[in-house]
From TrEMBL:
Start and end residues of each Phosphofructokinase domain: 13-307, 387-655
Subunit and interaction comment: Homo- and heterotetramers.
Residues the entry annotates as binding beta-D-fructose 2,6-bisphosphate: 456, 513-517, 551, 558-560, 614, 640, 646-649, 709
Name of the featured protein: ATP-dependent 6-phosphofructokinase
One Gene Ontology molecular-function label: ATP binding
Notes on activation and inhibition: Allosterically activated by ADP, AMP, or fructose 2,6-bisphosphate, and allosterically inhibited by ATP or citrate.
Species whose genome carries this gene: Cyprinus carpio
Active site (record annotation): D150
Catalytic class of the enzyme: transferase
Length: 755
């Protein structure tokens, strides 16, 4: 069987997908071909179609764009061009295509597949191929992966390149906010998104922008006055800057374009604010891929190869998609048709429907932005007697402040009174509690750490004083944002309800820890930022050896006993090995890894990377592994070590940690609840595969290894064979959890039922 990796248009993260397809294809015993310059290379043939080797995709994970080139192709849109492309493929025995691109590229691939039999008949009739060759290559199988920074393809939560583009935008916004703060300026940022406002919407949500303009939901008539009123109110409350984000395809309700310069002129004319315009342009397409994009592309690439392996002549062309935390396969043309329906709805000014067609993620993000950015006047707020306390517990994690901001503003919108607790449960017991208002959390989204203050202290020894403070402040509900200590704390508070009636209130925990070791949730706030810190550092460390030959780096990551950071960071950085507590190893394994790396160093790679979780072994320490590799690699490679430490913890958060839109449901569950002592009144809000779910913490006890502070079952362990395969180890790969072909209508029904 022969595979082909084809890149049609250039987006950050594509190289990780190309690397995964090539190495997984070789792993299953197939030949893999590159087609350079997209469809143009397929039409032209010749040297544009070359067989790929394992080494040809080395050292490309951190490279933006696509190393095999990309080009638009007018010839492929013609029947004659597709006929030439078919001839080039048959001559090389290629009958499986892995296409990475947008909806136009994927639609072209599907048309090519539908015409395949007819194209072969024409080639036989013209004598360019034999009837035997036509029979041998009678079926063409297509699997697509979506590469688009706009995230405009229906059927997947995230397309390859989107996360990296959002990183570029947030980096620019963070830089601009410092100068805007100094000079009391208003900045209008124009981001890409001619037909889709995802980048504008999510970046506005991530940075707490004052206003956002997107194609799917044009502002209502009179928006100019409303926007200026909001900007003016913001300044009156003490803000020294305003941020407005405009998608390049933004229009008003009548289809008139709204450009960044139009917005600037409006602000200057109506308010007299010093206003600047920044158009980001193609900087959003470039740069180094984020950890998320590398992992997504690697998983999708492997899934694409598995889909091709399982394809039969009757299998429709499919696209590999991401739904929640799970890979799924969807019929390609169903997704394309749904994507086209979105544009049709926008053209016909059915904007509410267009938003819904974009999918659950887009709709939730839009609703969350509206909720967090537009404050209702006091007369519009519902009246409630509920007092809600918010606190951070455990080690600081990037994204904690964004979660607190969301909680405070949603709670106020619902008519509740919010109280901020400083320094966790310890501060709670000392009465470090004060009311927190809408404006108090302005500008919190971009700040790392915990502005409320956080400590690891558990509540058990302060339980009497905490209960007293809850009575004094009449606390009716509790939101705890933190790590494993927050989970333990909620269990202790629930256990103390029999003695303290004040604790019989609804309690919700939101996991926030870089270690990602909380049972009941696949992902925690802070983990994505830590992964990006690890990936960025590994890239820099490997780059430092570019002028040397054959060097191996031993990197120690955080995580306690949880190997999430070491494993997923290793997958994103292209590690050769990652040592973790969950997968026991001994000296024989270490020796085998050294020998494997030595062999690779002799034949191909010049730099090696080994990650070690800080508590993976009591005896096989980072120093021990460093000394072992140094000794056994003598004459072949030298060794360096690096302990990343708290740099994984203190960076400002990534945009993924602003997606706290489900906080709204926390406050909905408070309404009408005064006395609560049932199991489901103390819950953890976690992401499980495709859905965000509330789970009673007491029911999670059986899923927890309390000694090592990790869940007994962890989804990411299934990624370890993938990391080993991509590092050229011979290992088995479990396909039981691989995506199955679904239909987009059925998928959307699941999404709706999960809300």
């Amino acid at each position: 069987m022969i595979f082909l990796s084809l890149s049609v248009f250039c987006h950050v993260g594509m190289n990780a997908a190309v690397r995964a397809v090539v190495r997984m294809g070789i792993y299953v015993g197939a030949k893999v071909y590159f087609i350079h310059e997209g469809y143009q290379g397929m039409v032209d043939g010749g040297d544009n179609i070359k067989e790929a080797s394992w080494e040809s995709v080395s050292s490309m994970l951190q490279v933006g764009g696509t190393v095999i080139g990309s080009a638009r192709c007018k010839d492929f849109r013609t029947h004659e061009g597709r006929l030439r492309a078919a001839l080039n493929l048959v001559q090389r025995g290629i009958t499986n295509l892995c296409v990475i691109g947008g909806d136009g590229s994927l639609t072209g691939a599907n048309l090519f597949r539908e015409e395949w039999s007819g194209l072969l008949d024409e080639l036989v009739q013209s004598g360019q191929i034999s009837e035997e060759a036509a029979q041998t290559h009678s079926a063409l199988h297509i699997v697509g992966m979506v590469g688009s920074i706009d995230n405009d393809f229906c059927g997947t939560d995230m397309t390859i390149g989107t996360d990296s583009a959002l990183h570029r935008i947030i980096e620019v916004v963070d830089a601009i906010m410092t100068t805007a703060q100094s000079h009391q300026r208003t900045f209008v940022l124009e981001v890409m998104g001619r037909h889709c406002g995802y980048l504008a919407l999510v970046s506005a949500l991530a940075c707490g922008a004052d206003w956002v303009l997107i194609p799917e939901m044009p502002p209502k008539d009179g928006w100019e006055e409303q926007m200026c009123h909001k900007l003016s109110e913001s300044r009156l409350r003490g803000s020294r800057l305003n941020i407005i984000i405009v998608a390049e395809g933004a229009t008003d309700r009548h289809g008139n374009p709204i450009s960044s310069n139009t917005v600037k002129d409006l602000v200057v004319r109506c308010l007299g604010f010093d206003t600047r315009v920044t158009i980001l342009g193609h900087v959003q397409r470039g740069g180094t891929p984020s950890a998320f994009d590398r992992i997504l592309a690697s998983r999708m690439g492997v899934e694409a190869v598995l889909a091709l392996l399982e394809a039969s002549p009757g299998t429709p062309a499919c696209v590999v998609s991401l739904c929640g935390n799970q890979a799924v396969r969807l019929p390609l043309m169903e997704c394309v048709q749904m994507t086209q329906e979105v544009q049709k709805a926008m053209d016909e000014k059915r904007f509410e429907e267009a938003v819904k067609l974009r999918g659950r993620s887009f709709e939730n993000n839009l609703n969350t932005y509206k909720l967090l950015s537009h404050r209702k006047i006091d007369a519009e707020l519902p009246r409630s007697s509920f007092n809600v306390a918010v606190l951070n517990v455990g080690a600081p994690a990037a994204g904690m402040n964004a979660a607190v901001r969301s909680a405070v503003r949603v709670g106020i919108t619902e008519g509740h009174t919010l109280f901020a607790v400083n320094d966790g449960f310890e501060g709670f017991s000392k009465g470090q509690i004060k009311e927190i208002k809408w404006g108090d959390v302005g500008g919190w989204t971009g700040q790392g750490g915990s502005l409320l203050g956080t400590k690891r202290t558990l509540p058990a020894k302060h339980i009497d004083k905490i209960a007293e403070q809850m009575r004094i402040h009449n606390i009716n509900a509790l939101l705890v944002i933190g790590g494993f200590e927050a989970y333990l704390g909620l269990l202790e508070l629930q256990a103390a309800r029999s003695k303290h009636a004040e604790l019989c209130v609804p309690m919700v925990m939101v996991p926030a820890t870089v270690s990602n070791n909380i049972p009941g949730s696949d992902l925690s706030i802070g983990a994505d930022t830590a992964l990006n810190a690890i990936t960025d550092t590994c890239d820099r460390i490997k780059q430092s050896a570019s002028g040397t030959k054959r060097r191996v780096f031993i990197i120690e990551t955080m995580g306690g006993y949880c190997g999430y950071l070491a494993t997923v960071g290793g997958l994103a950085a292209g590690a050769d090995a990652a040592y973790i507590y969950e997968e026991p190893f001994d000296i024989r394994d270490l020796q085998s890894n050294v020998e494997h790396l030595t062999e690779k160093m002799k034949t191909s790679i010049q730099r090696g990377l080994v990650l070690r979780n800080e508590n993976c072994s009591e005896n096989y320490t980072t120093d021990f592994i460093y000394q072992l590799y140094s000794e056994e690699g003598k004459g072949v490679f030298d060794c360096r070590k690096n302990v990343l430490g708290h740099m994984q913890q203190v960076q400002t958060h990534t945009h993924l940690h602003t997606h706290t839109n489900t906080v709204y449901h926390i406050f909905v569950c408070f309404v009408g609840r005064v006395f609560a002592n049932t199991e489901d009144s103390a819950c953890l809000l976690g992401m499980r595969r495709r859905a965000l779910v509330f789970q009673p913490v007491i029911q999670l006890k059986d899923e927890t290894d309390f000694v090592h502070r990790i869940p007994k079952e962890q989804w990411w362990l299934r990624l370890r064979p993938l990391m080993k395969i991509l590092a050229k180890y011979k290992t088995s790969y479990d396909v039981s959890d691989s995506g199955q072909l679904e239909h987009i209508v059925r998928l959307r029904a699941k999404d709706i039922s999960a809300i």
